Amino acid sequence: MYDVLIIGAGTAGIAAAKQLEKLNAKYLLIEEGDGSTTCAKTGCMPSKGLIEIAKKVNNIQSLTKDNLIQQNHFKVDTASVLRKVRALRDHFVERTIRGSEEFPRIKGHASFVDTNTLEVNGEKISANNIIIASGSRPRIPDVFEEVKSSILTTDNFFEQETLPDSIAVVGLGIVGVELAQALARLGVQVQVYEEYKTIAGIQDEKVFHHALSIQQQYYPIHFNTKIAKVTKQAGQFLIEWESGQSITDQVLLCAGRESNIDQLNLEKLGLDTTDTANTLYDPCTLQINDFPIYVAGDASSKKMVVHEAAEEARVAVYNAMHAKKKRLAKPALNIVFTDPPIARVGQSLSELDQEKCVIGEFEFSLQGRATLKGENHGVVRVYVHSENHHILGAEMMAPGADNFAHLLMMAIQNEIPLHGLLQLPVYHPVLEEGLRQALVNVKSKSAVT
């Protein structure tokens, strides 16, 4: 009898195993796939590899445009680009696998028999607790069913031998906006289709308009467009919607991901897995009903990012091994690796009582270091409590936003008030001077001394 069975050996599963090792618990990882994590194989790492290469290409093009270098026959070898990205990807996959080889595991598909028992490869295995960390898969809407075997998702995007001349990116969430910009910088003709008017989940209207102005420099965006039909004709794809149609060489579907939790036979326990994110489990304790079953990582359908998956795994392990339950409660931290980066920390503007909130703002059009870098665009918006002057949240699209977000997160978690941040020394010239100006803007609007 095991203390804990872990379904899945991705980010959440490995993090759970590490915690159980510290507790000297008897546990077993059950892995159906070929090892490693979504982040290393198809997500964070290969996508950032492509983004960094595209950024270097863009820098060369900018230097050429400014007549600082001569490049009369500049052409991107996209086959070599993808080979380089795969080599980087394989490096991180190997590291991930090697780092978890010592954990006890078996290979196979897990299926629930009862609340304490799984069936794997025809064998029944029991434990006092079970952690579901079974990951996710790309969501493929019904309209793409006819062509799903020939379109791209993040699961197969990096396996291409070369990039197409043109591509339709469907969905302008985090993955969609990152890859769309990178592909455009690499010379691919990109068109983007988004069912709503949103970019990477940005909620602050001012930040949205700055992001829109940047992204539209690279590709046209069809907002509020619900695709009605997609067919393949003579090696190309015909995309049709209510008010128009277009032809493209390839389709990259970035419509989000869905949990694999529906593949574990939880119906055997009388559970409905069709509304995972809202009704299946307690989002604070991660427990399903009062069963000894916990959910972590992408399987939860909540925040499908690495640091959240690892934190959920730690909470799931604690709650599996202790009678008194710990609650998952961390301020939001989201970063989008566009250029410039988009970031959100803490509470969004829509979640705040705006009568008790002061907003500090700074635009980067004249910021010194950003101008020297040729990246002087974007805005930082910081939300501060009007009475105790604690940082409540922020949303931004600006050079350095990925670093600003961590500083602001530290301030939120440690309850460092506005005046505490303003006392920190800021070197010159650095991008952080822009963040400081947003904080100074708050001070000028409130009674902070």
Explained architecture:
The protein is an alpha/beta fold. 32% of the residues lie in helices and 24% in strands. It has helices at 11-22, 38-41, 44-65, 78-99, 174-185, 205-215, 276-280, 306-321, 368-373, 401-413, 418-422, 432-445; strands at 2-7, 27-31, 105-107, 110-114, 117-120, 123-132, 136-138, 166-170, 189-193, 221-222, 227-233, 236-241, 244-248, 250-253, 257-259, 293-295, 333-336, 342-346, 357-363, 379-385, 391-397. Strands 1, 2, 3, 4, 5, 6 and 16 form a 7-stranded mixed β-sheet that branches. It has a 5-stranded antiparallel β-sheet with strand order 17-18-21-20-19, sandwiched between helices. Strands 10-9-8-14 form a 4-stranded parallel β-sheet, with helices on one face.
Keywords:
449 residues, alpha/beta, seven-stranded mixed β-sheet, 12 helices, 32% helix, 24% strand, globular
Write the topology of this structure.
Blueprint: E1 2-7, H1 11-22, E2 27-31, H2 38-41, H3 44-65, H4 78-99, E3 105-107, E4 110-114, E5 117-120, E6 123-132, E7 136-138, E8 166-170, H5 174-185, E9 189-193, H6 205-215, E10 221-222, E11 227-233, E12 236-241, E13 244-248, E14 250-253, E15 257-259, H7 276-280, E16 293-295, H8 306-321, E17 333-336, E18 342-346, E19 357-363, H9 368-373, E20 379-385, E21 391-397, H10 401-413, H11 418-422, H12 432-445
Parallel strand pairs: 1-2, 1-6, 2-3, 6-16, 8-9, 8-14, 9-10
Antiparallel strand pairs: 4-5, 5-6, 7-15, 11-12, 12-13, 17-18, 18-21, 19-20, 20-21
Helix pairs in contact: 1-8, 3-4, 3-5
